[in-house]
Amino acid sequence: MAAEANHGLKIVSGKSMTRIQMGCKHQNGLVYVVPAEKSWVCSDEMMPGHALAGFLGELTAQKDERVAAMMQRWGIYYRQLPLEEEGQG
To answer: What is the C-alpha to C-alpha distance for residues 84 and 79, in angstroms, rounded to an integer?
Structure first.
């Protein structure tokens, strides 16, 4: 049986925190997602996606050339998508 691919990401949900471990043999890090001012609208289960999408949306909206260059160097691009209820009307 083949091992399940994790793509260098391991998501561990806890009671009030989600840890996203990411890396490979060249880079390694851990992101903690906890309840905060802007995440109260989501369930605990959906909070990590809500927080990361919101953070990246705000970060890219800054139109900071340094941030844009850094994201391009790492091959990371972010685009906000319409919300499900917005796309169904």
So the answer is: 15
- For 59, list phi and psi in degrees, rounded to 5: -60, -50
Q: Provide the 8-state DSSP code for 88.
A: T
Characterize the bridge pairing of strands 28-33 and 18-23. Answer: antiparallel
Q: Which helix (H) or strand (E) holds 47?
A: helix 47-61
Which of 48, 54, 57, 61 is closest to 14 using CA atoms? 48
Pairing, β 9-13 against β 28-33: unpaired
For the question of whether the overall pTM of this predicted structure is more than 0.70, the answer is yes
Using 50, 70 and 90 to split pLDDT, how confident is the model at 84?
A: confident
- Cβ count within 10 A of residue 18: 19
The type of residue at 28 is: N
Q: Which two tokens stand for residue 22?
A: 């990411």
